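Bit of a strange request maybe. I'm writing a small parser for structure token strings and I need a real example to test against, not something I typed by hand. Could someone generate the tokens for this chain?
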Amino acid sequence: MDTKLKWSRRSALKSALVLAGAACAGALTAERAGAQAKASKEAMKYQDKPNGDQKCSACLQFEPPASCKVVDGKISPDGYCIAWVKKA
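Reply from user aminoacidic:
Good idea to test on real output. This should exercise your parser:
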């Protein structure tokens, strides 16, 4: 009896599509796992008032009008936290 595998064009195409789908699913899962959650206001010692001339609107992490790349939730442009980094 012949034990060689015989691949038809159709079975090869199906296998390629399944592998491509698995690769895409794996990439999406890895991307989601790599995304970092924002820290709480308490963890970043956020306050609604500036610390001298250090305030959210002058920080590299600030995303107008009232968001931050690091701190979760709505923030004040005049606020401050320990993640403050001066804009270049």
